[in-house]
Amino acid sequence: MTGLRHRAWSAAGNRNTVAVVVLLVLALIYPTIVGSLQLVPVIGDFVPKTDSMVVMVVFTTMAIGLNMVVGYAGLLDLGYVAFYAVGAYTAGWFASQQFSQVSIDFGAAGIPDGLPGIHISMWLVLPVAGALTMLAGTAIGIPTLRLRGDYLAIVTLGFGEIVPQVVRNADNVYGFDLTHGTFGITPIDSLGFGAVGAALGLPESFRQSSDRAQWYFWFAVVILLITVFCSVRLRDSRLGRAWIAIREDETAAAAMGVPLMRTKTWAYAIGAFFGGVAGAFYASFKGGAFPADFYFNISVFLLCMVILGGVGSVWGVILGGMLLSYLNVEGLANIGSTIQATGLAFDPTKYQFGIYGSIIVLMMLFRPAGLIPERRHRVEMEEGVHDTPFYDVQREGTLTDRDGSDD
Amino acid sequence: MLPRLRGARVTDLIGLTLLGLLLIWLAVNFVKGPAAFIDISLIGLTNGTIYGVVALGYTLVYGILQLINFAHGDVFALSGLVASTVIVSVLGLDEGSSALVIIGGLAVTLVVIMVGFSLFNASIERVAYRPLRNAPRLAPLITAVGMSFVVENISLALYGVNYRTVPNLISHSDVIHIGGITYSWSKASVLIIVIPLLVVLSWFVRSTKQGKAMRAVAQDTEASAMMGIDVDHTIAVTFLIAGALAGAAGIVYLMQFNMRFDTGFELGLIAFTAAVLGGIGNLSGAVLGALCIGFIQAFNEGLGWFAPGSDWTRSMVFGILILVLVFRPEGILGEQTPEGA
Fold it and tell me: Are residues A38 and A97 both part of a single domain?
């Protein structure tokens, strides 16, 4: 039994390695070949630009982070956008001219000497943003994680709504401009190789180089890769197994000695970390952090990626994330122009959240484990779990029987 | 349980301190301007009543299914928008119509919308929630979030992004006018419509067989099924009632404010907060919680002394929600349950 499972695992491991290598090679050459791909008839119109690819990869990274909370630990977080916001604003505080009272330069790329504001190197700001977001996640988690699943959902939703309102209104905290209100913080410094890189012929600052999108894309892929690696390793770790135990049956997990609060808080904090890093990276790519970016819709959008791909399944979430963010960035607009070319006045971008909502509903009804289901999660969905409400007792069968299950 | 008791005392103390500060803030504001304070309270009463009707829809469904029906707020918004069509385009009511025509027209609208949206709400339950009865708990919740967006986009597709409004059918002349305090017929109409509804609802839940079945299912689904109660039917009836309440709330809201496709999202969150504040699953609690939220919102936006203002309303409402869940998860009127914490 053990040997068999081991062999199955290593075979899957080999397949995964091949898939990762193929995808990485594709990512490496994508900026070069995208131009010729777009010339291909019919499908050429639907090939995303490198710019759009950056956004897609960043959102996929956030979805992987959310998957750790929702997929592994089974905590429904409807306010993940708050972590994105904290990450983006951390980038704004430490790498822009926002605090022009001071002038600090610490290894920032492509910044002229004496520019006011704090300018820490964006490479440092990314982990700092992650760490601060992790703190925020812990602070939110500690009072709320003892609540039951659906209460937790609504409280996280509350935080997701409070954070944007705070950043929108905190432009005059006793006379101190913390977030620059509705205008947001802009410009945020670019990533770059700095003076050292410039000496080697690499761009000093991505934003000022002619290959901005390409460099951002490659580093977005690097961050995604790190996130996926951490996510997979965490899942198989002691902590990750504790998360899955909690997801499957909280009472049983507690009885087996899993410390509920601590384990859940870790899930929340680690999920937040990656949201923060991705948020800071995206802020640097966009060159700004604006309160209008942080709506409840984004939280649902990320949740939709996780559900479409397969709750708990890393490959699934990558697929779901890339697919939906493609639709969001370019796809729906492209499809819309194709539809409008036939003379129909229908604009799918206007109804994008209706479309995502329908995807959520349809997936939950017909394929609840997602496009690429995680094995264990599919079993849970098909057979029900211990906290299943036993409503169907009046139909024939035992309490846990579910229609269509054939055991 | 014993070791938790001490912890509970500390949180109780913090909770009571916060409550005390709130009362001091209200008292100081009252002393500074009694007339304005009462005026603002009346606004709070009106808004709170509307929130209460929506909150009842959340609490009814939660009581029976333990499901936060996110789509409820959007059903409310859609009902208000459809009501605006019925009032303006179908019935053609305007400010010049005679009082009898207006009252009759509104009554017709009320009946049409309440019936229509109770059926709409029940069909949402039939299509989206019933197949998931046995799925893990989060499945119907996630579906409800999706459904909320679907309904919101139905409103968007039908009514576009512009705000809809109806003419001032009910005059703004005053019912009472004492000193600086005024109370208009238009505000009173909210109470005139809502109170009979609440009485009927209360009678239905307390005194009819179906209401008894609802209470039984809410208390213990399994046991009531064994006693021969048709659980699916009872849940469907609950959704019918919730839909009818959403429809009534939509009309009442439309008479006071203007609405558009996303009104339901924010108002739904406020109403849900109200339901939690009062003790979710508890009908009187939902109304009480909604009145509290209505007052707090009105005080926050209207009072002069240390009031954060309307920029912060959403944060205030959610702040309250979080504080309630942290300090008293069972709500004001809820019973202490082990699941609450």
Answer: no
The answer to whether A258 and A246 have CB atoms below 8 angstroms apart is yes
| Pair (A59, A35) in one structural domain | no
In-domain check, residue A326: no
- What average pLDDT does chain A have? 83
* B135:A388 CB<8 A: yes
Is B19 inside any structural domain? no
Instruction: Judge if A32 and A74 occupy the same domain.
Output: no
Taking the Cβ of residue B171 and every Cβ of chain A, the question of whether any pair is shorter than 8 Å is answered with no
Structural domain boundaries, residue A7: 1-47
Interval A143-156 mean pLDDT: 78
* Backbone dihedral region for residue A111 (phi beyond 0: left; psi -120 to 50: alpha; all else: beta): beta
The answer to whether residues A99 and A254 touch, using CB atoms and an 8 Å cutoff, is no
Chain B CB contacts of A351 under 8 Å are 153, 156-157
Q: Nearest-CA distance from A407 to chain B in Å?
A: 16
Of A104-108, A397-401, B242-246, B294-298, the poorest mean pLDDT is in A397-401
Enumerate the β-bridge partners of residue B259: B164
Classify residue B180: in a domain, yes or no: yes
- Taking contacts as CB-CB distances below 8 angstroms, the residues of chain A near B267 are none
Interface membership of B220 toward A (CB under 8 Å) = no
Q: Are strands A103-106 and B174-178 parallel, antiparallel or unpaired?
A: unpaired
Q: Does residue A398 fall inside a structural domain?
A: no
Q: Do A148 and A62 belong together in one domain?
A: yes
Q: How many domains does chain A have?
A: 2
* CATH number where B112 lies: 1.10.3470
Nearest to B321 among A158, A380, A403 (CB): A158
For residue A215, pLDDT beyond 60:
yes
Q: Which of residues 264-323 of B touch A (CB under 8 A)?
A: 265, 269, 272, 276, 311-312, 314-315, 318-319, 321-322
Chain B, nearest residue to A301 by Cα: B146
pTM of the model: 0.84
Chain A hits for B139, CB-CB cut-off 8 Å, are: 364, 368, 381
Q: Would A390 be classed as within a structural domain?
A: no
Q: Does A55 reside within a domain?
A: yes
Between A358 and A348, the higher pLDDT residue: A358
pLDDT tens-place string over residues A258-311:
998 899 999 999 999 999 999 999 999 988 888 888 888 889 889 989 988 988
Residues A134 and A178 in one domain: yes
B145–A78 CB contact, under 8 Å: yes
Task: For residue range A55-82, list pLDDT tens digits in order.
Answer: 999 999 999 999 999 999 988 888 899 9
> With contacts defined as CB-CB under 8 Å, which chain A residues touch B153?
351, 353-355, 357
* pLDDT computed for residue A219 by the predictor: 92
Count of structural domains within chain B: 1
- Residue span of the structural domain in which B145 resides: 32-327
Choose the mutation target among A78, A150, A366 for the interface with B, i.e. most B CBs under 10 Å.
A150
Asked if residue B334 is part of any domain, the answer here is no
The pLDDT of residue B11 is 67
Across the A:B interface, residue pairs with CB atoms under 8 Å apart total: 159
**ipTM of model over 0.95:** no
The pLDDT of residue A9 is: 56
Give me the residue from B225, B265, B322 closest to A393, CB to CB: B225
In a domain, B61, yes or no: yes
Q: Name which of B75, B238, B276, B322 to mutate to probe chain A: the one with the most chain A Cβ atoms within 10 A of its Cβ.
A: B322
What confidence score (pLDDT) does residue B8 get?
58
- The tally of CA atoms less than 13 A away on the side-chain side of residue A153 is 21
Structure tokens at A360: 């959520």
- Looking at the structure, do residues A39 and A67 belong to the same domain, yes or no? no
Q: How far apart are CA B208 and CA B197, in angstroms?
A: 16
A321 Cβ partners below 8 Å, 6+ apart? A56, A59, A60, A61, A62, A63, A64, A305, A309
* Three-class secondary structure of residue B167 per DSSP: coil
Higher pLDDT, B177 or B198: B198
